[in-house]
Amino acid sequence: EVNLVESGGGSVQSGGSLRLSCVGSGVTFSRYWMYWVRQAPGKDLEWVSYITTGGATAYADSVKGRFTISRDNAKNTLYLQMNSLKFEDTAVYYCATGSVGQDRGQGTRVAVSS
Predict the structure, then answer these.
(1) H, E, C per residue of 39-95
(2) What pLDDT is recorded for position 48?
(3) What backbone torsions phi and psi does residue 32 show, to the nearest 5 degrees?
């Protein structure tokens, strides 16, 4: 059974930074493309970023240039460095094994005040 646990969220002012982490168990991390997705209040789940097994990355236009995804397969851990945060980044962030949030955990809440 895949178990993903996200952490690192919090409240921050606009322009600030946060680093999210996601620790996986029950999964051979290195075999999966890994994703960050988010859900803002009252909105649908939104794909944010992914990283392939080879380390290639992609980002939604809304976060490109501000967010950086990375992974440490030895630690079964996925990261999301978020800089220059904006109010519209406020959401619950999840790591997942698919772009629509497959296997996602409980999430970690990010609140950005303007």
Answers:
(1) ECCCCCEEEEEEECCCCCEEECCCCCCCEEEEEEHHHCEEEEEECCCCHHHCEEEEE
(2) 98
(3) -115, 140
> What are the beta bridge partners of residue 80?
20, 69
Strand partners, 17: none
Is residue 13 within 8 A of residue 112, CB to CB? The reply is: yes
Query: Whole-angstrom Cα distance, residue 71 to residue 106?
Result: 19
CA 57 to chain centre: 12
- The count of other CB atoms within 10 Å of the CB of residue 84 is 13
pLDDT tens column, 38-55: 999 999 999 999 999 999
Q: What is the CA radius of gyration of the chain?
A: 13
**6 CB neighbour count, 10 Å cutoff:** 23
**Token pair in block for residue 48:** 């944010």
pLDDT at 27 over 90: no
Confidence check: pLDDT of 101 > 90: no
